[in-house]
Every structure is written in structure tokens, then in C-alpha cells.
Design goal:
The chain has 229 residues and is α/β, with parallel strands linked by helices. It has a single domain, classed as Rossmann fold, CATH 3.40.50. Helices cover 34% and strands 17% of the residues. Strands 3-2-1-4-5-7-6 form a 7-stranded mixed β-sheet, sandwiched between helices. Helix 1 packs across helix 7. The longest helix has 15 residues. It starts with 18 loop residues before the first helix and ends in an 11-residue tail after the last strand. The structure holds S-adenosylmethionine. The site of S-adenosylmethionine has 20 residues, from strand 2, helix 5 and helix 8.
């Protein structure tokens, strides 16, 4: 990957004015989208894999080529790490053998998160590393904090870590967390110091861009997701 990534360009001067309304709606109305059969099947396989490995769970949501999944598995050898991405192309790239405590799953997170919540999964760590920014104001609903699945991300609980090269994405995410949970979440500059967790992290850093991060501990709270029983 070449280190000539352009900085995010947005037509938003600050947090989106519709953010609070979208978060309130997500917290009040069940997400109607049916679960796709392919993600249901992928989730069942992940459940079976996990059942054979009793360690605490780490989710790497939007893992891309899965390098972060591998690194997290090495960093936390007593944990099991599941990387999820919808791109078969990215997941199929050869980055060497997966550690025994890591699994890559092709699935749509909008469905995977809801299935994980319904199955009672409680990740101890949950990473959202460089999600697609969708920087145009019109695309707020495609950012994770503007999407109806947002409450499910929080409901799973654990140490949530979001990283992005777009400060406003992380700031909006923090505002959405505060609205949903009343837990304040801080945004901090992040310097990887050569220890890159993902290819996008390396690319943005090598292009001279600032990186931003939010981490906070959330208790599992399934009731946050409307329609969860
Ligand atoms: C900008 S890339 C970052 C990939 C990786 N985390 C990294 O930092 O190198 C965002 C990733 O999120 C994945 N993604 C976006 N929406 C998704 C969804 N609904 N379900 C699963 N993966 C999704 C994309 O396929 C892509 O691989």
C-alpha cells in the first residue's frame, strides 16, 4: 500500500446536526432488516469454533485483510480473536497462517453484531479499526454511530476501541456513546510508534496524517438494543 493517502475532506464543519436524532431513533426502534442467510451460516460456524476454545473473546470488527486479527491473537494468546469483514477479497489475501486462537469470518457486521448479542456473546475487547469514514454529511447513516445497529455495538460491552484518521468520526462516536449510555468518552491523539495494528493505520501514519482513538469500558447491556429479548 502506498503512503500517499489523502486527508479526509468533509462538508461538515462540526458534529452532524442530525446525530442525536439518529441515535435516539436507533435506541427506540428495532432494526427491521432481516438477517442474511450467509451471515447466519457464518455466525453458526464462528459459534462452533468458539465453543471449542473457552478463552475470553476479542472482536475485530471490519478487520480487512485480518492483520490486526493476527496481531491481537499474538498479543493476547489466552484470548480468542474473531475478525469479521464483509469483503471476501480482503479476507482471502495471504498474510500467513492464522494463529490457532484466531478466526476470520466473512459476514455483514450489521447482522453479525445482532446475532452475537442474541447469542449472549460478551467480548472483553472490541476493536473498530479505521472504519469507512463516509465523510459526506449526507452519509451520516452509514457511519457506525449513525446506523441503526449502533446500540448493538455498545450492548455487547467490553473494552471498546475505535481508531480513525478522521477526528470528527471519533468525536461523533463519543457523542453518540454519551447519549446512549451517559458514559463520557474521550478522544485522544494516537501515535503508533512503529507498532502498526492494521495496514490502514500504517498507510495513514506514513502519509503524515494524525490518528485518533477512543477507548472505554462498557458493561454488557443487551437491553440497549431495542427488540432484544
Ligand atoms: C477502511 S477498511 C479498514 C480495514 C482494517 N480495519 C484496517 O484498518 O486495515 C474498513 C473495512 O470495513 C469493512 N466493512 C465495512 N462495512 C462492513 C460491514 N457492514 N460488515 C463487515 N465489514 C464491513 C470493509 O470491507 C473494510 O475491509
Amino acid at each position: 500500500m502506498q503512503a500517499n493517502s489523502r486527508a479526509i475532506v468533509t462538508n461538515q464543519p462540526g458534529p452532524h446536526q442530525d446525530l442525536a436524532r439518529r441515535v435516539a431513533r436507533a435506541l427506540a426502534h428495532p432494526l427491521q432488516k432481516p438477517i442474511a442467510a450467509h451471515t447466519r451460516a457464518a455466525f453458526a460456524k464462528a459459534e462452533a469454533w468458539r465453543a471449542a476454545r473457552p478463552g475470553p473473546l476479542i472482536l475485530d470488527a471490519g478487520c480487512g485483510v485480518g492483520i490486526s486479527t493476527r496481531r491481537l491473537a499474538e498479543r493476547f494468546p489466552d484470548h480468542v480473536v474473531i475478525g469479521v469483514d464483509r469483503s471476501a477479497d480482503r479476507l482471502s489475501r495471504d498474510h500467513g497462517e492464522l494463529p490457532d486462537n484466531a478466526l476470520l469470518v466473512r459476514a455483514d457486521l450489521v447482522d453479525f453484531w445482532r446475532l452475537a448479542l442474541a447469542a449472549g456473546w460478551q467480548p472483553v475487547r472490541h476493536y473498530l479499526l479505521y472504519p469507512n469514514p463516509y465523510p459526506k454529511a449526507a452519509h451520516l447513516k452509514m457511519r457506525w454511530h449513525g446506523h441503526p445497529v449502533f446500540p448493538a455495538i455498545l450492548a455487547l460491552g467490553g473494552r471498546l476501541e475505535l481508531r480513525s484518521n478522521w477526528r470528527l468520526y471519533v468525536e461523533e462516536f463519543a457523542l453518540a456513546i454519551e447519549q446512549a449510555t451517559e458514559v463520557p468518552a474521550g478522544v485522544e491523539a494516537y501515535r503508533p510508534e512503529g507498532d502498526f495494528l492494521t495496514p490502514f493505520e500504517r498507510k495513514y501514519h506514513d502519509s503524515g496524517q494524525s490518528l485518533w482513538r477512543l477507548t472505554l469500558d462498557l458493561p454488557p447491556a443487551p437491553a440497549l438494543m431495542p427488540g432484544h429479548d
